[in-house]
Amino acid sequence: MKTHSIAGPARRRWTVAASALGLGALVLLPACSDSAASPAAAGTPSSTSTSTANATQTACAAALASDWVNIPGIDPDGPPASAAELAAWATPLQPHITALRAGVPADLTSKVDTLATAVQGATEGKPVPTEDASLQAALTAVNAWAHDSCGYTTLDVTNSDGTGLAGVPATLPAGPVAMKFANTGTDPAKAGFILLLGKVRDGQTATAADVQSRKVNLEDIADIVAVAQPTGTDPAYGLTTLRPGRYIVSTPVGPPPEFATILATGFEVS
């Protein structure tokens, strides 16, 4: 399988991964009580502000801590996920959904609930409906919030005319990164289909130029750590943690499955 084709399992895998975010199934709503009527329980404005900031921090950490790429059964050409595999993926996400829902703005709680429903099903052995449009919308909304609100390093990548990727620096610091990818041109034939962020494996010498010239397949030399697939002119988002090493950012351009070309560029993390 070559990078310029990205057909079959690879194309579908990263397409679906970018379109679905699974979150834990346990949603804990704030309890109702008479304590809200008490000034002491309500807290001062400063304590309320601190509490909100702490909840946001915890929600950001919860969004970052989980693996939304390797959902069991995401490869449509592979074997279906077993109930045990689905439960093993979903169960560790349960505490994260509580933290996420408690820390996002009120207008995002319904998005978290949508995602939580899918993961609840996974804990019961039900396949994750990764191509459901509501999951795609929820993923975009949650990751866009994290990009704008968590204070993480941002990697904002744009493709305007299908000839190169802008916004990728030579170096980035290790740690959390919020990725954003947008096509800013007007010609759909020159739009990037999906952005892949890969950490080049130790011992590999291939470069971004090798990926762009189609000498190598990105997935053969790097571990994909984040994906982002735009819808039309709307940007897409992804979260990951950068560790020291060499990274390549790449997108196939044009309609699948063959694509017109590949764009790729790289950066270092030390």
What does it look like?
Helices cover 36% and strands 21% of the residues. The chain is of the alpha+beta class. It has two domains: 116 residues, no CATH class; 119 residues, Cupredoxins -  blue copper proteins (Immunoglobulin-like). It has a five-stranded mixed β-sheet with strand order 3-9-8-5-6. The protein has a four-stranded mixed β-sheet with strand order 2-1-4-7. Helix 3 packs antiparallel against helix 5. The chain starts with 7 loop residues before the first helix and ends with a strand. The N terminus is likely disordered.
Strand content: 15-25%
Please work out how many helical segments DSSP would assign. 9
Broad shape: globular
Please trace the helix and strand order, writing H or E for each element: HHHHHHHEEEEEHHEEEE
- Placed side by side, the strands forming the largest sheet appear as 3-9-8-5-6
Q: Give the low-confidence spans.
A: 1-43
Radius of gyration: 20 Å
CATH top level of the largest domain is Mainly Beta
Largest sheet: 5 strands, mixed
The percent range for helix content is 25-40%
- CATH superfamily of the largest domain, by name, is Cupredoxins -  blue copper proteins
* Arithmetic mean of pLDDT: 83
Q: Total domains, how many?
A: 2
CATH domain topology of the largest domain: Immunoglobulin-like
What structural category do the secondary elements indicate?
Answer: alpha+beta
